[in-house]
Amino acid sequence: RDFNERCAQCSEVNWGLTDGGRFYCRSCHNVTERTREVVNTDFITNSRVQTISKGLRKQEKNDGGCEWYICEGFQLVLKKQAEALEALGVCPQMKDEILCSFWRCYLQKSKQAYCKRPAGETVKALSACESSTDADSDPERPSLLHLLSLSESEGDLQTDCSFASSVSKVSESTSVYSGSVDGSLYLMKNQKEKLRMTMPMTLSFCYMALLWLKEPITLSELLRFVVEGHIPYLNVFQHFPEKMKLCGLDLRIFCVESWPVYEEVFNKMHELAAFLDLPRFPDITDSCFLHPDMLCMKYLMEANLPDELHNWTCRVVKKIGIGEVDFLTLMPGNKSTRKVKYDVLAAAVIVVVLKLLFLLDDHYEWLLSEFAEERNKNNTEGGPYFEFKKWYEVVKQSLDVEQKKLDEERAKYLWRCEKPLFYSIKSKSKVLKRREMVVNLQNQFGKLSGSVRRVEKPNPSSFQLSWSEENTDGSCFHGHSLKGVLQEKCGLLTAINPDYWLCTVKLCNEKLCGHLAHYREVEFPQSYHFVLGLFSFLLRIQPSYIHDEVCMIEHKLFNKKLYKKLKYNTVLRK
Amino acid sequence: SSHEHKLNFRKSKEACLSYIQDALLQKQWKRAAEFLTCYVESLEKDYSREHIGPSEMIWRIGTEILWHHSQSSMKEFNCFMEQMKTLGVKRYLKVCLEHVFHLLCNGQIDEAYQNLSVAESWRFGEQTAIQDKEMKLIEAYRGLLDYYSWSKQKNILLEHGEDGFSDLAVEQEMHSYFRKAAVNLKEIIKIPGVWDVFVKCYVDLLEFYGDHNEARQVLNEYAYNSKFPANPNAHVYLYQFLKRQGESKKSLISALKILHDIVPSHELMIDFNTMLQKSKKRKKRQLGLEVIFAALDYAGWKENAKAWSCLARQLKQIVISEKHLDWIKQEWNSRKDWWPAFHFSRYLAKRNWQENKSLSYEKALVAGILLGKDCKYFKYVSHQGCKAQLKRFRMLKKFVNRHHPVYLRISG
Fold first, then answer.
1. What's the pLDDT tens digit per position in B81-127?
2. Cβ contacts of residue A388 below 8 Å, gap of 6+?
3. Which of B1, B2, B9 to mutate to test the interface with A (most CBs of A within 10 A)?
4. Domain residues of chain A, as ranges?
5. A534 to chain B: nearest residue by CA?
6. What pLDDT was estimated at residue B55?
7. Number of CB atoms found within 10 A of residue A121's CB
8. Are A18 and A71 in contact (CB under 8 A)?
9. Least confident piece of the model among A144-148, A271-275, B233-237
10. What is the mean pLDDT of the segment spanning A370-393?
11. Nearest CB to A407; choose among B2, B44, B45
12. Which of A207, A354, B157, B269 lies at a C-alpha separation of 20 to 30 Å from A339?
């Protein structure tokens, strides 16, 4: 890449490479017709180039690799993810317009492209890398080993130890090794300033785009699709074009070894929205999928609960105002409002409704169930009354089966991909040998496994548990009636249950300790724990997150009563 | 099952391992193989901080599965072991050794020998020195197999000898195996450890070639060198050797003394007591009484008629001579609280009488002396014996009755 010509438009010598192999000017985004083949490989001496090692120079002549930047890599990742989402049914606008715009905006704001190159930065990086023979020469530059021991927030690569030792031997003769041009610089950047891009953040981008378009995919669903392999995440780099060689520090950036965590993706998304100075997102109205009324309907179905409960969820939603457009719509940068987790919120509403109607204190719900059972035995006309006990047994059985399957799948998960990765040229042969052995062993023991291992991913589906009304064994509760737990008072249907217990009397300060409340299984009734566990499974999040939302809802619901003195009692009269 | 939602590579592999462990414990080899297939990719990660890394895990688990799985062949097993040898140079000799054990278990002596030879010639920089102990073991086992070959040749020779043939070739081979075996066996037993099988073989070789001095030295070292872990067998081997050599009672007794201290319930205690009873020295006879009482403290000896007869004989002799009754008193003191229930219950009386008349006779005699003529065991057995008109039981009854005052003196 020794393209030394001045740009026709801006006269700068600041070239990058597009996907198509053409040169484009980084300063003004002018794409030329010149392609790489024309250029001779002595370009490396150009001072604009950020990170090159002597070893890499030899590499380039032989293996046909090109220079690429980290953000190009991420761009590819996002592209793949968007395509996958499109295949799942998301509108094509998402990829071509929304996500693209967000990404360009990000690149601009973080000064990685579409702006004037901060020249000072490059020169500094260069000098740092060239004089890498003595780590102490520049006391301000963080040493390589320090760099490598920085632990990432998401799954730190445990190869720290071996990598550190191999690089420290390498550092005498070459500088920091990475396939990309700015791999090391990327890791050395001050993270806090510019919201450095990470793999989990790609999902934040996706979610943000989905939210903007109000697509019917919740964050928990998105993350589940990622784990199930419908959306590229793990090992997505294997789809990078051949010429984009990935090695060394790049691996630290692109190789993930843990599944994205809901909280992290969620928080990052909000940070991102604020960073990009986005305006208020499109309104979430009651006809939106993400509206609590809609999501509650879905979750009620999935949890095999009676449709009639939907009336109650709507009532709660209305009463505490969480169905309001202003509450639900995202306003980036607004720090005073609590960020809405649509899926968790809906699940929590259902939990609260169950507590309202059934109390869930490990006594009352079973009592009510007995009455319903009696009634169902003696009176078969008019449809069955909902029996908590039966529902519990049916759902628990299915849940246990699914949970067991899930646990085994997690234990059997294969993390490695076909494409072998190496940190340095020296480790290449060792890595390839190991890979060969792994493949041999997999074959050998695979044959002894008996059953053929299922290779295809399950079809992506929005529902993990499904119940059919056509089943004659009565295992579907959608059509069951709540008459057994309701009564009429002054023309209004209210619950027979007169009591309610609060999960917590006082909410914590979320900013201080990260949670609104602290959930410990032993302190709460088993039924409550079961219900939390059910939604925890469906949403693939910790029960404590749902518990937090439940506490929040309860405090809104019983706002007035809480101001009264409550000395030793946590049981309220409604 | 964990409801852990934050899943990463490490946790996923940990879970995988626990599934493998469950499957192994339940002997579900197919299932274990299934999960192991998923686990092996751990090899591509660095676990240098862990105590046991994936390569060792895979070696051990894989060995178990291949050894037990019905569809796995020896060929596959060997192939796997060869792969494991290349995995971890720090473990190379250990893997070789275990491979050899498996081959031996499978009766493949020649293959085992070949593997040992290959391992013996392995050199790998400083690892060779670090794995010195394993190397010694490898040499020792090769020596053992050489001994085995020697033994085979020896038997051939003996057969031919009977037929009047003398086979020079066989003899030469035999001697060469001897030399090879002796060198390695001698080396390993120098190192403190438990080397029963090596010691036995080496001593066998030495004895055959008439080097009794060396044999004696080896056995003494093995038994008495404090650097070696306490090993009852060492004393047993020494005792047996001395007996073969026709040594004096004195040395035999001193060899068994330590055995008594370490393992009072050892089967050789009968021999020991027999020798001690016959001794002219008072202290030795007293020790004999101690020894036989101590042995019968153990449940495994309860029905050992020979042991009871030793005790009975000695007690009888003391009672008749009326000398050293204090010996009996001393031994009985710590036992009078529990021996009656342990040995002399009415239930046992019935059972012993039904199953083994000699046993009941000896026990009745002991009971009669220690517990007097009114003890239930004695009464039942002697009554039954007299009913059955067996002469010795009548004699027994008379004897105990006559010496009842002795009992009174003992128990008082």
1. 999 998 888 889 999 999 999 999 999 999 999 999 999 999 888 88
2. A358, A365, A366, A368, A369, A372
3. B9
4. 1-36, 67-111+195-278, 292-405+473-558
5. B3
6. 87
7. 14
8. no
9. A144-148
10. 88
11. B2
12. A354
What is the H or E stretch that residue A327 is in?
helix A325-328
Is A445 in contact with B72 (Cβ distance < 8 A)? no
- Find the mean pLDDT for residues A114-122: 45
Rounded CA separation A235/A256 (Å): 8
Q: Does B10 touch chain A (CB under 8 A)?
A: yes
| pLDDT averaged over every residue in chain B | 90
pLDDT tens digits, A382-408: 788 899 999 999 999 999 999 999 999
Please tell me whether residue A32 adopts helix, strand or coil conformation.
Answer: strand
Q: Which tokens in the block code for residue B109? A: 């002596």
The two three-digit tokens of residue A294, written as one number:
């809609």
Nearest CA in chain A to B67: A448
Q: What is the H or E stretch that residue A293 is in?
A: helix A292-302
Decide if B75 touches A, using CB distance below 8 A. Answer: no
Interface residue A455 vs chain B (CB under 8 A): no
Q: How many CB pairs under 8 A join A and B?
A: 125
Question: CA Rg, chain B, in Å?
Answer: 30
Q: What are phi and psi of B357, to 5 degrees?
A: -65, -40
Answer for the pair A218, A207: CB distance below 8 angstroms, yes or no: no
Question: A27 burial class (0-12, 13-18, 19+ CB within 10 angstroms)?
Answer: buried
Indicate whether A7 pLDDT > 80.
no
DSSP B315-350: HHHHHHHT--HHHHHHHHHTTTTTHHHHH--HHHHH
DSSP state of A258: B
Decide if pLDDT at A148 tops 60: no
CA distance A151 to chain B (A): 15
**Smallest CA–CA distance from A260 into chain B, residue:** B6
Q: What is the amino acid identity at position B256?
A: L
Partner B contacted by A151 (CB < 8 A): no
Using a CB–CB cutoff of 8 Å, tell me whether B27 touches chain A. no
Judging contacts by C-beta atoms under 8 Å, the chain B residues touching residue A451 are 30, 34
Residues within 8 A of B (CB atoms), A 260-319 only = 261-262
Instruction: For residue B246, give both structure tokens.
Output: 């026709």
Concatenated DSSP letters for B251-268?
HHHHHHHHHHHH-TT-TT
Closest by Cβ to B7, choosing from A259, A403, A541: A259
Cα–Cα distances in angstroms (integers) from residue A485 to residues A361, A386, A444, A532, B334, in the given order:
15, 9, 59, 21, 75
CA separation for the pair B388, A540 (Å, rounded) = 83
- CA torsion, points B96, B100, B101, B103, in degrees to nearest 10? 140
In chain B, which residue's Cα lies nearest the Cα of A541? Answer: B5
The stretch B349-356 carries a mean pLDDT of 94
Query: What average pLDDT does the segment A261-278 reach?
Result: 92
Q: What digits encode the pLDDT tens for the residues B395-406?
A: 999 999 888 888
Distance from CA of B78 to the nearest CA of A (A): 12
- Between positions 426 and 445 of A, the ones with CB within 8 A of B are 431, 434-435, 437-438, 440-442, 444-445
A512 touches chain B (CB under 8 A): no
The shortest CB-CB distance from B58 to any of A158, A441, A540 is to A441
Token readout for A446 is 């695979």
- Asked if residue A230 lies in contact with residue A88, where contact means CB atoms within 8 angstroms, the answer is yes
Q: What is the pLDDT of residues A498-555, one digit of tens each?
A: 888 888 878 887 777 778 888 887 889 999 999 999 999 999 999 999 999 999 999 8
Q: What sign has the CA pseudo-torsion A518, A524, A529, A532?
A: negative
Let me know if A562 is exposed, middle or buried by CB neighbors in 10 A (0-12, 13-18, 19+): middle
Over range B284-302, report the average pLDDT: 94
Percent of chain A scoring above 70 in pLDDT: 71
Query: ipTM value of the model?
Result: 0.72
Greatest alpha-carbon span in chain B: 86
